[in-house]
Design brief:
By secondary structure, this protein is mainly alpha-helical. 74% of the residues lie in helices and 0% in strands. The protein has helices at residues 8-17, 22-29, 33-45, 53-63, 66-69, 73-88, 92-107, 118-134, 138-149, 154-167, 171-184, 189-208, 217-232, 237-251. The protein starts with 7 loop residues before the first helix and ends with a helix.
């Protein structure tokens, strides 16, 4: 096919490969949804176009229009991109708009020939994370995470582990979910370890503040699960000793 007879998809692919965002911007101005989303992303990160969040938001708004473009994987990606751009503004109103965007992306049905979309899954996991952070719609957040955990989507399982500890105050399932992620190696191990470092510090601070008569069987179960996780992942010896001594003290 000649240079001037390329399909819109071929022009999009060529523009995607280019370091400059000008070709992609031209396609966006011509009404291509995927190009609009790409331009929004480029403006938000400064990739090929000078970083400009207002312009990024403008193009994200144009791309994330389910009435104009219909329900499709491209529309899911557009709403996901818009949600992330809204979060960059760091205001209560933009945070609310981000949640609405992620919820729309998560709610769009996939075409019959597709059973998975990264952007749909990430939208659901991000929406759940935002709900948790703002302590709202917690049951909905859990249902979203459980849905994608069953599909072995790692980000959902990561957030479900955090939900178990921070929302349900239950360390045992959190440890289990994190260990499964490490065993499958389908997520950056450092992310799991860093999160568990924070959780371990927070949990031991709480447990050390307990009086002996305030300790329950649940506490002992959590400490034993924690010790197993820390031992399996070769934690520092002094932390292992601290947890082991707490178990011994509370059982004695």
């Amino acid at each position: 096919m000649g240079l001037f007879n390329k399909t819109p998809e071929e022009k999009f692919e060529k523009a995607s490969m280019a370091s400059s965002g000008r070709k992609m911007l031209k396609l966006a101005e011509g009404g291509m949804q995927k190009a609009m989303t790409s331009v929004a992303y480029k403006y938000s990160h400064g990739f090929g176009l000078k970083k400009d969040l207002k312009k990024a938001k403008y193009w994200a708004d144009k791309a994330a229009d389910v009435k104009a473009f219909g329900e499709s994987i491209d529309t899911i990606e557009a709403y996901f991109t818009k949600g992330n751009i809204c979060l960059e503004f760091k205001t209560a109103e933009s945070n609310k708009e981000a949640k609405e965007s992620f919820k729309t992306a998560y709610s769009i049905a996939l075409p019959e020939d597709k059973d998975y979309s990264y952007y749909k899954s990430m939208s659901g996991a991000t929406l759940a994370r935002l709900y948790m952070a703002d302590n709202e719609n917690l049951q909905e957040a859990k249902e979203i995470l459980l849905e994608y955990k069953r599909s072995y989507f790692p980000e959902a399982q990561f957030q479900l582990a955090r939900y178990s500890y921070y929302i349900e105050n239950n360390l045992v399932p959190a440890v289990k979910y994190f260990q499964e992620l490490l065993d499958r190696k389908n997520m950056e191990g450092e992310d799991v370890i860093f999160e568990m470092e924070d959780i371990t510090t927070d949990y031991l601070k709480k447990v050390n503040a307990l009086k002996d008569n305030e300790v329950s069987l649940k506490t002992i179960d959590e400490l034993e699960a924690l010790l197993e996780f820390l031992t399996e992942n070769q934690w520092e010896e002094y932390i292992l000793e601290e947890v082991a001594n707490l178990i011994k003290r509370f059982k004695g």
